[in-house]
Design goal:
Order of helices and strands: HEHEHHHHEHEHEHEHH
Shape: globular
GO molecular function: damaged DNA binding; DNA-directed DNA polymerase activity
CATH architecture of the largest domain: 2-Layer Sandwich
Organism: Lacticaseibacillus paracasei subsp. paracasei Lpp123
Family: Belongs to the DNA polymerase type-Y family.
Radius of gyration: 22 Å
Protein name: ImpB/MucB/SamB family protein
Keywords: DNA replication, DNA-directed DNA polymerase, Mutator protein, Nucleotidyltransferase, Transferase
CATH class of the largest domain: Alpha Beta
């Protein structure tokens, strides 16, 4: 900054250079993290001259908390907004002052993210090595079910099994992802009025099985309308090299470490003795398919 000036001065120089060379007016959001910069861009910079805005932590009460529409906020859609309304949260001020434990209980990792975003906090690490597009293929598994699944719990079980498999692959390749998505295909598209749906959410970079399962279940319930399901998929994108464990504010360091150790132990046992050597409890429930599929060749009967 000693060389080029303040953030605002640098932004002005860039805007002027782009306009002088190409005749294009550019807008710039400036913040102490990517979230604040994006919110500044969308809610202020795009609306009036000088087409730039700066949002900082100390301005959160006069910026983020003044945003009324939850559905337009980062990572919150109309369905999630309705669920927040149902527990007395109607705007960003309410969200910032809500019970963090309740949000975590109701929404899992998304609840954590929503709470911190309402305070302008974003843990995105722009210095973390990001894999180029050619390498950043994403990790995912999908499954065509052998029958129609109409019970939410059965669908949850399959989603959990697939999420477990995807998380294991991430750990095997020593990578993590921060965009989790699910795909649901309906058994009868004509009856449902659509072939299915997809949904995704951004989370802190992770390769933990529990994180993927919570996100997958949340995304499923956010859009499922009760129609019979025949195809299920879970995918993780925005891949980066796995870094050190990021502690949750809702779990002790000891519990976090225990969860990581559990994942690693299960991975080692499966590598030595096969997938069926150790399975999670939900794989014994009705609707589970992982144990049977572990004996198939390429997911099919040999």
């Amino acid at each position: 900054h000693n060389l080029f000036g303040s953030n605002e001065e640098i932004a002005t120089q860039i805007q002027k250079k782009v306009f002088d060379q190409f005749g294009i007016i550019t807008t710039v959001g400036i913040g102490q993290n990517p979230l604040l910069a994006k919110l500044a861009l969308d809610n202020e910079a795009k609306k009036s001259t000088p087409w730039q805005a700066t949002w900082t932590y100390d301005r959160v009460p006069e910026t983020i908390w003044k945003l009324d529409d939850l559905a337009d906020f980062w990572s919150i859609g109309s369905r999630t907004a309705k669920k927040l309304n149902a527990i007395g949260i109607h705007n960003l001020y309410d969200l910032a002052h809500a019970d963090r434990a309740l949000l975590h209980q109701r929404f899992g990792v998304l609840g954590d993210a929503m709470y911190f975003h309402a305070w302008g906090i974003d843990y995105s690490d722009l210095t973390r090595r990001y894999l180029p597009r050619s390498e950043n293929k994403g990790y995912g598994n999908s499954q065509v079910l052998m029958r129609d699944y109409t019970q939410a719990r059965e669908i949850e079980v399959v989603l959990s099994e697939i999420a477990d498999q995807v998380a294991g692959r991430l750990r095997h390749h020593q990578v993590q992802g921060e965009v989790i998505s699910v795909g649901i295909g309906y058994a009868d598209a004509e009856e449902a009025g659509t072939s299915g749906f997809g949904a995704q959410m951004k989370v802190d970079p992770t390769n933990r099985t529990d994180d993927l399962i919570r996100a997958a279940r949340f995304l499923f319930h956010s859009k499922w309308n009760g129609h019979a399901v025949r195809n299920v998929s879970v995918r993780v994108n925005r891949i980066s090299q796995a870094s050190t464990m990021q502690l949750s504010l809702f779990e002790s360091a000891e519990k976090e470490e225990a969860n990581v150790l559990l994942d690693q132990t299960i991975d080692k046992i499966r590598q030595l003795y096969g997938y069926k050597a150790i399975v999670r409890g939900y794989s014994k429930e009705k609707g589970a398919t992982a144990i049977d599929r572990a004996g198939l060749v390429g997911g099919h009967h040999g």
